[in-house]
């Protein structure tokens, strides 16, 4: 079993080990594309650069998403001949589908997934990836506020 620790992000991008007032977005540290990130140990103050970032754990998203600017910057390969319509709470955007390996830095586990582009940074988001149900159905999400245990367990 693989266990990935979950952190919490506020609207400014500040990350804490536990949720607090205004800091409720569950995130995990990741590395995207062809990156050797296995020696990185995540901390809430970790300064990810280039291929390192935070991914939002989103139980309300069916698919996995990547910021369109991050996909272009990292030159993540697009799945030929594919496109998607991204429907958010306030807008609809055309998206492209990319395939990329994602490294969960805490557990050092790599998985390959499709990521649909979405304008995350244009909309003020401080994370570059959203991991939705397509990812979460591979394991167990634990958000135990009483015991302060926050993790994703991949079976």
Explain what the structure shows.
The chain is mostly beta strands and 155 residues long. It has a single domain, classed as Cathepsin D, subunit A, domain 1 (Beta Barrel). The protein contains 2 helices and 13 strands. The strands form 3 sheets. The chain has a 6-stranded mixed barrel. About 10% of the residues have low confidence.
* Estimated helix fraction: under 10%
The number of distinct β-strands equals 13
What is the rounded Rg? 15 Å
Overall tally of domains: 1
Within the largest sheet, what's the order of strands?
4-5-11-6-10-9
CATH architecture: Beta Barrel
* First and last CA, distance: 5 Å
The major pleated sheet works out as: 6 strands, mixed, barrel
Beta content comes to: 35-45%
Structural class: mainly beta
User: Which regions have little confidence, pLDDT < 50, spanning 5+ residues?
Assistant: 34-40, 42-49
CATH H-tier superfamily = Acid Proteases
Tell me, rounded to a whole number, the average pLDDT.
Answer: 82
* CATH T-level topology: Cathepsin D, subunit A, domain 1
**Sequence of secondary-structure elements:** EEEEEEHEEEEEHEE
CATH class division:
Mainly Beta
Number of helices: 2
* Approximate shape: globular
